Amino acid sequence: MTQGSKYTSFLVLKLTLFSHLFAATSGQCRGTETFEKLSRVTLEGVESAPPLFTYSGGTVTAGCLDRCREARTCSGFVVDYSREACFPLSPVYPPAGPNPTPRPADHAVNYFQKICLNGPTCGKAWMLERVVGFEIEGYDDLVLNDVATRLKCAELCLGERNLRCRSAEYHERDRVCRLSRQDRRTQPLSFRPSNPHVHYIENQCAGIPLQQNCEFEEFQEQDISHPDLQLSVESIEQCQEACEAEASMNCRSYTWVAQAGVCRLSGDDMTSAGLSAILPSPGVVYYQRTTCLDLRLSCTVDAMTVQLYTPEPFKGRLFSQDFPNTCKSQDKSRTETSLVINFRDPQCGTVDEGSGVYSNIIVVQHHPVIQRRGDKAIKLLCLFQAANQTVSDSFNFIVDSTFPGGRVATAIVNATAPSPRIRLRIVDREGNDINGARLGEELYLRLDLDDDSVYGILARNLVARSGDNSDSIVLLDDRGCPADPAIFPSLQPIPNSRSLQGKFEAFKFSEDQVVRFQVNVQFCLEECRPAQCGNIVSYGKRKRRSLKGEGGLVTLGGELTLIGGEVTLRDVEVLDNEEEEEEDHVYHEMPLQKEILVESTTVKPLKSGLLPEETEAHRIANLVCTSREVLIAMVVSAVILQICIILIAIMCVFARRRRKVPATEVQQGAPSLTLSRGYRSPYTVSYSEDSANTLKTLRTSLRD
């Protein structure tokens, strides 16, 4: 080897060592160092480490991001919002195990993982959000095979130029990456649980969806427990403006504390943090973004036509509020959904408000079966005029009803062990049994089991039905997994008890106020192992098995009676198979049901912005437009009508006086009928002449 080649080899080795040293000092990231957020997720053991950053009385997210970004040994951190602190994930304080696995948390925490991406940047504090075990079903715009890692899939989404990639799904086992123009907020009904090897990745650089960029939904006396930024402002309008203008993150909700002038911004909402993140908080108001509506109304001489435009095929319902069965749109899964309402059709209930104004209230229901919080009712107005113009006013549902406490569905199982008593209850946040609720109200479905029982319980096939059984929706499937966690989540054990409960928001069916919950409950000896539903743990049936004497199954013979909501099972026989020790000993299914009432009676105006073509919709909400000719004709008609009324009234008064004067004079019969000094009434003269003639006749008769 020559001296030149030795020098070249030494130079290459030196450059290689320098590049490795540079990579190590820069955190081994040659691209963009950012973070990936997992909401309501923690790592075992991390929260017991010394905090990375704390800030009493404020928010810690920004400070934690800065501290972890500066620390080369920090590979991530967990924010505990209730403790106002974050805890690092580092070699000095590692969690349990060499490869920590994020797990769902039941308290207000978020996990931020430091990542390195090769691709375009957007200035967001965290560029990705991830949900383990979920996917958007049916909206794959681009499928890429043989993608090595999850981060590579995320980079493909960030760098894709042929479509605006809002989300991606990475299948670890198949090494498949699926890119989509949709995300969990634009297609909430398609965001469903999958297996634990599927990762839903949301691109934060895509920004807020257009259909969620015009309206905020209000929650009085409630607050989300995930604040990321805190500001001091003078009004709620300034708080909303701060949320809309925030560039470091996608602000999806904000909280206004009027008494302190405090505005708290959050990158989470009910979609990402879940219903359990919304907690009672007196004196504050919580707002989160909601879906906007693109509605257009046209009027003819005999009908009004309303058109709903959506970016994706509309799978919900569009119908008249008072006539949901007979007056509804027949369009299915279209981006343009129309409803024609005839003014004279009694099956649509259009109201004639007079002066050529016709109105109707329609409902935009996003779910095909049930009404939920956020569905809108819109009042439509049509006025006959030379050039057809319409003004629309929109309303929110506020459903309010109070009902006395009712019976609780109960069931009793008689076996060789002490008889467990299981009750299906619908309760409020205070634990009180309810039979009626407001639409969107926080409720809990509870399966109460005696704490001293030797049994555990499973729940599956939870179905909500309308009062007449014409509509139904599956809440928990035959595995016990939630069909749509946004409507009803998984059942979780209540601490220090054998009972289960699930938190949900009150919903109703379009044609019925009654919501009947039906569930099948099974019993296990000791405890029941929960079902694994993606990254969700649910205490439903882990594995469906037939009731034919399989191993670990308990068959119930004898008599089964249902009286007054109580089920009694007799003559229980246990069939145990020792070869299947890992399976639960499951008892026969026990059906339970409970009804509640949800009414939709009150409507209030929405805020401006629901109609994109009307930028001042709030200003003209109660206005009716008309032409100049029609207005002049109406004014002239009103003036003529007033003159006619006055003339008729004057004529009636004079006619009444003319009839009353003669009758009054005759009834008096006084000797002197003089009305006033110097004037004698003609009736008085006539009366005197008649009297004189009468006296003269009498004198003549007496002479004769």
Automatic annotation (TrEMBL):
<feature type="signal peptide">
    <location>
        <begin position="1"/>
        <end position="27"/>
    </location>
</feature>
<feature type="domain" description="ZP">
    <location>
        <begin position="298"/>
        <end position="540"/>
    </location>
</feature>
<feature type="domain" description="Apple">
    <location>
        <begin position="122"/>
        <end position="205"/>
    </location>
</feature>
<dbReference type="InterPro" id="IPR056953">
    <property type="entry name" value="CUT_N"/>
</dbReference>
<dbReference type="Pfam" id="PF00024">
    <property type="entry name" value="PAN_1"/>
</dbReference>
<feature type="transmembrane region" description="Helical">
    <location>
        <begin position="630"/>
        <end position="654"/>
    </location>
</feature>
<feature type="domain" description="Apple">
    <location>
        <begin position="214"/>
        <end position="292"/>
    </location>
</feature>
<protein>
    <submittedName>
        <fullName>Uncharacterized protein</fullName>
    </submittedName>
</protein>
<dbReference type="Pfam" id="PF25057">
    <property type="entry name" value="CUT_N"/>
</dbReference>
<keyword id="KW-1133">Transmembrane helix</keyword>
<dbReference type="InterPro" id="IPR001507">
    <property type="entry name" value="ZP_dom"/>
</dbReference>
<keyword id="KW-0812">Transmembrane</keyword>
<dbReference type="InterPro" id="IPR052774">
    <property type="entry name" value="Celegans_DevNeuronal_Protein"/>
</dbReference>
<keyword id="KW-0732">Signal</keyword>
<dbReference type="GO" id="GO:0009653">
    <property type="term" value="P:anatomical structure morphogenesis"/>
</dbReference>
<keyword id="KW-0472">Membrane</keyword>
<feature type="domain" description="Apple">
    <location>
        <begin position="29"/>
        <end position="116"/>
    </location>
</feature>
<dbReference type="InterPro" id="IPR003609">
    <property type="entry name" value="Pan_app"/>
</dbReference>
